[in-house]
Amino acid sequence: MPIRIDNDLPVKKVLEDENIFVMDDRRAGTQDIRPIDILILNLMPLKEDTELALLRSLSNTPLQVNITFIRTMSYTSTHTSLQHLERFYSDFEHVKNRKWDGLIITGAPVEKMDFEDVDYWKELTEIMDWSEKNVTSTFHICWAAQAGLYYRYGIKKHEFKEKLSGIYKNITRHKSDPLVRGFDDTFFAPQSRYTGVDADAVYANDRLKTCAYSDECGPFLIIGDGGKNVFVTGHPEYDTFTLDTEYKRDLAKGLNPSIPVNYYPDDDPSKPPVKSWRCHANMLYTNWLNYYVYQATPFDWK
């Protein structure tokens, strides 16, 4: 698929080297089609890594997808240069006066905090309120899924005794739902979090449908209000070495982390991990873009 991004975005070269079709503004202007406009609110500290991971995940559909990145203004990232943020990111004030086909809200390393204590909580809830009337479907990842389930449906979170980290098996449910169309009965996905959602409350809510769950991790894919909101409690977009980087970072900090589950061959961190989740991760993003964005969005928002 052609992803339309800023020509100067640093990850563009990496995507092209991976044979991912990236379209510039000049070529996009010659396409006589209705492109899909996706807004990405990137809350992760290493923004360029997240940009690359998400753009890879969004690159497996014939649709032309225009990507716009936005950031919070109530909190400034300290792990990404201000120059990069000012050059490649917009803010909510500059995007809120139009309609968008889809919105992706990433995870964030603030899960141990109460939601209301997060610096940008008020700004985030304003964006979530706005999305109800101005976005066809919103895709929430990891902490954003917990935040969205809490704010939109009153689902509380709880803290684990130790970090949930690794590659976990999920069981597919509601197989006729388009979000999991083409999925196997079971599939794997990365998890990296200290908190979980109240599974009983999710299952009991008539507005929520769980399309995949894990015995160890709880609900994984949750659809709210018929697809208006999609919640993914893990990180299907993670690259092969993301968990490896996190594990070794935590080791260096003296946190004594457990070895990520089902990740290293023979549980040996000296051996390179094998990626076992890419196919279903790509299918998830493709299904969301196709069935809950493209098929549902008006051809002309006006």
- Runs in which pLDDT lies below 50 for 5 or more consecutive residues are none
Query: How large is the count of helical segments?
Result: 10
The amount of helix comes to 25-40%
How many strand segments? 12
Work out the strand percent: 25-35%
Mean pLDDT metric: 91
Estimated structural class: alpha/beta
Q: Please summarize the sheet with the most strands.
A: 12 strands, mixed
| Morphology | globular
- SSE order, one letter for each helix or strand: EHEHEHEHEHEHEHEEHEEEHH
Cα distance spanning the termini: 26 Å
Kindly list the characteristics that best describe this protein.
302 residues, alpha/beta, twelve-stranded mixed sheet, 10 helices, 12 strands, 30% helix
Description of the structure:
By secondary structure, this protein is α/β, with parallel strands linked by helices. Helix content is 30%, strand content 26%. It has ten helices and twelve strands. The chain has helices spanning 11-17, 25-28, 47-57, 82-88, 92-95, 121-134, 143-153, 199-204, 242-252, 278-294; strands at residues 3-4, 22-23, 36-41, 65-71, 89-91, 100-105, 135-141, 157-172, 186-197, 208-214, 218-224, 229-232. Strands 1, 2, 3, 4, 5, 6, 7, 8, 9, 10, 11 and 12 form a twelve-stranded mixed sheet that branches. β3 (36-41), α3 (47-57) and β4 form a beta-alpha-beta unit. The longest helix is centred in the last third of the chain and has 17 residues, at 278-294. The mean pLDDT is 91.
